[in-house]
Write a structure and sequence with these properties.
Layout: E1 2-6, H1 10-21, E2 25-29, H2 33-40, H3 51-61, E3 64-67, H4 70-76, E4 79-82, H5 97-109, E5 114-118, H6 126-137, E6 144-148, H7 158-163, E7 168-171, H8 175-184, E8 192-195, H9 197-228, H10 232-240, H11 261-274, H12 280-304, E9 311-315, H13 330-340, E10 344-348, E11 364-365, H14 369-373, E12 378-381, H15 386-389, H16 393-396, E13 404-407, H17 414-419, E14 423-425
Parallel strand pairs: 1-2, 1-4, 2-3, 4-5, 5-6, 7-8, 9-10, 9-12, 10-11, 12-13, 13-14
Bound molecules: 1,4-dihydronicotinamide adenine dinucleotide (NAI) and uridine-5'-diphosphate-glucuronic acid (UGA).
């Protein structure tokens, strides 16, 4: 069975590598010539631990190849995974433009039965749309099935997550498609959820929205903890021991970012609205997240008087550690608000870089933590990279002009920092 993966971004590249690892012949297709050129050379165009090793291994073994030739790629394949982006439209709904384009191309070029699988995160009803788009584009009739197989991997842990999933969700109305998909994953040991395409599509959004809800819940509780002199980390530890609650996704901080939680929560809210249902809990989840970074900047402004002319170090830019992805990164929101208030910023991140945009021109990008902290009036910790967790704050005391530390990821201990003579402000773990 030959597999084609369309879209070689985070999800597509990982999907391609996982199927190669499971023993299938895989082709990765993208419209971006530069990405395909890099992938052919065994180089990833983004940072993802372990993925480049798999890429090199499977290029060498001939298990995987990359192309921009869509006609040939579609015709040679038996199963086609759609892994293109589904970004937010201005109203928050999912933009299915790339999915539609791919579906039309498949319809035009197919030369026999194809199983088309959407792995991209798509709103409920998209399987029916994709079926219609393929049918409309077909010049000759060929049978096909469209199934939904959402992806649950996390950036930074993509390889482990994709090779050892918690579950594989297959939304399909055809026995042939279900059996084919199950056979592709036959060596993966995990529960299989076999359901309708609409249910599979909703499971994906409901999962991300639930995780985002946990984060906003603990973030709002953290604000209360600050008032009550209680440590939110102790509260999270205490409630997380209840298996009905679980300990994960209860780390308070400057809010969730990334390419998916913000976009998927908005899309789900919009789907509900279009069906005259108000997802009021999720609407609050978004509100809390939108104000979480300013909770910390407000505290900092009170402490510093104003940001104008202050030298401020920003440690961490990526939306979380182990990725260079800065999409919707809370650090960017903090940087923008400090720049608006005329602070002088020095930024350090081990791998993530600022977008090329005139508004960031004045930010000094540093190659070392110490360089960013030099003569700083204050520092914001925005991403919990190991190198940032491991900073020797005793040594940094003389490097900074004033020891004001605003910990957006609750990675330090308030008592230790105060004992070193720092002013320390976290999000709910200040006791
Ligand atoms: N990034 C993540 O961790 C996860 C993402 N998802 C979902 O997976 C989907 C893809 O996400 P990412 O991989 O992050 O996106 P991405 O933006 O990194 O990659 C999408 C790729 O599709 C390519 N593309 C667009 N139109 C094309 C076409 N007509 N033919 C061939 N290639 C085309 C683009 O050039 C790009 O390389 C989204 O729906 C996302 O919500 C799901 C789980 C995890
Ligand atoms: O659909 C997707 O794209 C993916 O979205 C998330 O994965 P990802 O965005 O890679 O990263 P997470 O580890 O979930 O973190 C998201 C954000 O929440 C923040 N976060 C996470 C956990 C926590 O306790 N507190 C917290 O603030 C992180 O710092 C980060 O900004 C989900 O975890 C994946 O299951 C899903 O497949």
């Amino acid at each position: 069975m030959k597999i084609l993966v369309i879209g070689t971004g985070y999800v597509g590249s990982t999907t391609a590598m996982v199927f190669a690892e499971l023993g299938w012949k895989v082709t990765g297709l993208d419209t971006d010539v530069h990405k395909i050129r890099q992938l052919r050379q065994g180089l990833l165009h983004f940072h993802e631990p372990g993925l480049e090793d798999l890429l090199k291994k499977h290029i060498q073994s001939g298990q995987i190849k990359f192309t921009t030739d869509k006609d040939k790629a579609i015709q040679e394949s038996d199963v086609i995974f759609i892994c293109v982006g589904t970004p937010s439209r201005p109203d928050g709904s999912a933009d299915l433009r790339f999915v539609k384009q791919v579906a039309s191309e498949i319809g035009q070029k197919m030369n026999g039965y194809k199983l088309v699988v959407t792995k991209s995160t798509v709103p409920v009803g998209t399987q029916e749309l994709v079926t219609g788009w393929i049918e409309a584009a077909q010049e000759h009739f060929y049978p096909f099935d469209v199934a939904s197989n959402p992806e649950f991997l996390r950036e930074g842990k993509a390889v482990t997550d994709a090779l050892n999933p918690d579950r594989i969700v297959i939304g399909s109305e055809s026995k042939r498609a279900t059996n084919l998909l199950k056979s592709l994953y036959h060596s993966v040991k995990c529960p299989f959820v076999i359901t309708t395409p609409r249910t599979a599509e909703l499971i994906k959004y409901a999962s991300n929205a639930f995780l985002a809800t946990k984060i906003s819940y603990i973030n709002e509780l953290a604000r209360l903890c600050d008032e009550l002199n209680v440590n939110v980390k102790d509260v999270a530890g205490g409630i997380g021991l209840d298996p009905r609650i679980g300990s994960s996704f209860l780390q308070a901080g400057i809010g969730y970012g990334g390419s998916c939680f913000p976009k998927d929560v908005s899309a789900l809210i919009l789907t509900a609205r279009q069906n005259n249902i108000e997802l009021s809990v999720l609407e609050k989840v978004v509100k809390v997240n939108q104000t979480q970074h300013s909770y910390l900047t407000d505290k900092a402004r009170t402490r510093l008087g104003s940001f104008s002319g202050k030298k401020i170090a920003i440690l961490g830019l990526a939306f979380k550690p182990d990725t260079d992805d800065i999409r919707e990164a809370p650090a960017l929101r903090i940087i923008e608000s400090l720049l608006n208030e005329r602070a002088q910023l020095r930024l350090y991140d081990p791998i993530a870089t600022l977008p090329h945009d005139a508004k960031y021109e004045s930010v000094a990008v540093c190659l070392e933590v110490e360089e960013a902290l030099k003569e700083a009036d204050a520092v914001f910790l925005c991403t919990e990279w190991p190198i940032i967790r491991g900073i020797d704050w005793a040594q940094m005391k003389d490097v900074m002009a004033h020891g004001n530390v605003f910990d957006g990821r609750n990675i330090l201990n308030a008592h230790d920092m105060q004992a070193l003579g720092y002013y320390y402000q976290s999000i709910g773990s200040n006791d």
